[in-house]
Write a structure and sequence with these properties.
136 residues; alpha+beta
Length: 136
């Protein structure tokens, strides 16, 4: 019987976890959870950045649509606050080398919408051309 009793004791001792094994498993789980939290935080930051770029692009498209309607197509530089932390700037310059005696000439239009995110200046620019009167 003593041989059987020894085998049972050995099997019982080997089937459990030691305190060190449990602590190592908890440390590994904590590291994994920490990495998961960092990844989730970065993902949310990237989502916020993407939303800002989308919003700035929409605002720039809207501002570009005003050139020729609310803003005259002429040489100049206009800017303003667009609200929500966004500012805009429209620059218009005649295309070099065009015939200035023509009734209409093409103008290069550059619209820039800027904002600040995490202490860094960011911007979106759209470029187009519009016909306008010759500049003087």
């Amino acid at each position: 019987m003593s041989k059987n009793h020894t085998e049972i004791r050995t099997a019982s001792a080997a089937s459990g976890f030691t305190l060190i094994e449990v602590l190592v498993a908890l440390a590994i789980a904590a590291l994994g959870l920490g990495a998961l939290m960092i990844a989730a935080s970065q993902g949310l930051g990237n989502l916020r950045t993407a939303d800002n770029y989308i919003e700035a692009t929409r605002r720039a498209q809207s501002r570009l649509a005003t050139v020729g309607t609310e803003l005259k197509v002429e040489e100049g530089d206009w800017s303003g606050d667009d609200g929500g932390g966004f500012s805009w700037r429209v620059q218009a310059h005649p295309v070099p080398g065009t015939d200035e005696k023509a009734p209409f000439i093409p103008y290069d239009i550059l619209v820039t919408v800027a904002w600040s995110s995490e202490g860094k200046a960011k911007s979106v620019s759209l470029q187009s051309q519009r016909l306008g009167p010759p500049h003087e």
